[in-house]
Amino acid sequence: MTEAGKDLEIREYPLPEVEPGCILVRITCCTICGSDLHTWTGRRKSPVPIILGHEIVGTIVELGRGVTMDSGNRPLKAGDRITWTIMDNCGKCYFCREKGLMMKCARLKKYGHDSCANPPHFVGGLAEYCYITPGTCVIRVPDELSDEEVAPANCALATVVAGWDAVEVKAFENVLIQGAGALGIYAAALASHYGCRRIIVADVMRHRLEFTGKFGATDVIDSKGLDDDAVIGAVRELTGGVGADVVMELAGFPPLLPLGLKCLRTGGRLVEIGNAFAGAMFTCDASDIVFKCLTVKGIHNYDTVHLQKAIDFLQMARKRFPFGEIVGERVTLDRVNEGLRIAESGKTIRVAVKP
Ligand SMILES: [Zn+2]
Ligand SMILES: [Zn+2]
């Protein structure tokens, strides 16, 4: 991408020499995430030129000296299929070491978010190769999982798992999921797998709501044309009159946050994930938080542990939920602009780009 709002162009760069601790990967699949669309359409500022794409799976071409294992101590060799964290973090700065916030590392690098102008160039997923640097956590992909099942895990599912952990969702709880995109689908599947009672998904797109039924949603609220009181009333009715134990905001529409607070029961928890762009303003009655003793948490990206949990969850739950169907379209790299337009239309949850 050389400029926001314009078609991507194909550029050739020389392959880097693989340095110690690094890995050269041949990409087999990259899915287009909502944040790629934010960058492409200019809603989110990013440096250019940039290779978009961070939900990536690929096979190892060459391992740099010293790389013998993945993050889970599984041996690695050329030809193995891997995925990796969205970020490379230093492990030594204040946030990495003192505060356990590796995604907020002072020297953070993010695949698909940084300029590709300088070597090693291959720092994004919409490409034939990716160059993985030493601060990245790499996970060998279990054979039974397809590329399409794994790629969106490395952003959407891992982020939902981070949000899930942040508000400590428990069995028998009632969950309201705002947004029936990839994040909402994974949240429903987690809630179902871990024994939540009411799994309520709200969205304005009917076809997306229907799809969540395959992933464990027990109830859906088509909020198109509904005012807030109608949504709050529907959630109360589904939760014995008290409201949801947990609300997960996954749609990225700012007014959903104050609405989510009103849908919570007293003592409930809300995790805000969707509004990952600056200027996401909303108006809220702060007394909702005070009088109902609410907890509100923000989650941006995830920690290594969440990517491993995401892959583990896919392995555990793949027979129950059709994760592969989240990818509704496939395009080759030379048709990437068509892929971006399909993704932007919202017709399908994920578009896979395969070199
Ligand atoms: Zn993403
Ligand atoms: Zn750091």
Task: Please give a quick description of this structure.
The protein has helices at residues 34-41, 94-98, 147-150, 156-166, 182-193, 206-212, 228-238, 256-263, 286-291, 304-317, 336-345, and strands at 23-31, 55-63, 81-88, 109-110, 129-132, 136-140, 175-178, 199-203, 219-222, 244-249, 264-272, 295-298, 327-332, 350-354. The chain has 355 residues and is α/β, with parallel strands linked by helices. The protein has 2 domains: 23-155 and 302-354, Medium-chain alcohol dehydrogenases, catalytic domain (Quinone Oxidoreductase, Chain A, domain 1, Alpha-Beta Complex), CATH 3.90.180; 158-298, 3-Layer(aba) Sandwich (Rossmann fold).
Write down the overall mean pLDDT.
97
Strand content: 15-25%
Number of domains: 2
Low-confidence stretches: none
- Give me the CATH fold name of the largest domain: Quinone Oxidoreductase, Chain A, domain 1
Shape: globular
| Total count of helical runs of at least 4 residues | 11
Distance between the termini: 17 Å
Series of secondary-structure elements, N-terminal to C-terminal: EHEEHEEEHHEHEHEHEHEHEHEHE
Can you identify the CATH class of the largest domain?
Answer: Alpha Beta
- The radius of gyration is 20 Å
Summarize the main sheet: 8 strands, mixed
Which superfamily, in CATH terms, is the homologous superfamily of the largest domain? Medium-chain alcohol dehydrogenases, catalytic domain
What is the percent of helical residues? 25-40%
Which ligands appear in the coordinates? zinc ion
Q: What's the architecture of the largest domain in CATH terms? A: Alpha-Beta Complex
Overall SS class: alpha/beta
Total beta-strand segments = 14
